[in-house]
Amino acid sequence: MRVLIVEDEYLLALELADRLASLDKEIEIAGRTDSILSTVEWLQHHECDLMFLDVHLSDGLSFSIFDRVEVKCPVIFTTAYDHYAIKAFEVNSIGYLLKPIDEEDLRKALLKYKQMRSLFRADLDNLLNYLGKPTGEEKAPISRIMLSTGKAQMAMNVDEIAYFLANGRYLYAVDRKGDKYFCDGTLYKLEEELDTRMFFRLNRKYIVNFSSVAYFTHYSKSRVKVKLIPQAEEEIIVSADKVKEFKKWLVR
Question: 4-aspartylphosphate modification sites (predicted)?
């Protein structure tokens, strides 16, 4: 679970990161920002599963972030004041923690997030199973994609792509020979456009082609490590919340 901490007091941000790590070993601090501007910039180029957001930041109230960038994750607000609670729940808030943050309140907020996440995924799976077939209004998955290498641009069949890789603000496509190309867009957009029978999103960085998965091994109690062909430059770990779905996809 990738967490963004937005807090303009450095020591409080470090303390919150330490407490989160002690409460849940699956938590990864994806980033720390300390202002509205830096948070907007971070969200434009990165993704997270949950955000802890201080109401009062150095350049204003953090509610303005929601007017400047699309926030795609749940938010738990942190503040020394309780009179912003109603405003907080008008946006993506699932929790509101008063400073100094109580350990039990923090634990309950994390539990609430996990319960909501599990419920949403379960409902989504049931809905897809019920619908069975795509509606006529649903877009067909893309079959070709525009790629570039420096100044040269080309169109390539998506089934020739072994995997897509997000690295910072850049998105790459790696073909079956291991050649890497620049690709426009984001993993989120690609995930919506690609054929889900052929491609699967393993984590926050990788979408892989079914035919590029050589094998997987257990990495921890709840995660697995995937071997790709061609081999990636780093270890590919399937997010804990995607392991079950990944295994089903492999034997679909």
Answer: 54
Residues above pLDDT 70, as percent of the chain: 86
Q: Which two tokens stand for residue 80?
A: 């020394």
Buried b / exposed e along 105-121 (16+ C-beta atoms within 10 A): ebeebbeebeeebeeee
Q: Contact 36/65 with Cβ under 8 angstroms?
A: yes
Domains observed in the chain: 2-123 (3.40.50.2300), 144-250 (2.40.50.1020)
Give tens-digit pLDDT for 113-139: 888 776 655 444 444 444 444 444 456
Q: Which residue has the tokens 């948070």?
A: 39
What contacts 87, CB < 8 A, 6 or more positions away? Answer: 63
- Taking 70 as the threshold, does the pLDDT of residue 213 lie above it? yes
Instruction: Decide if 165 contacts 171 (C-beta within 8 A).
Output: yes
Of 72, 49, 187, 70, the C-alpha closest to 118 is 49
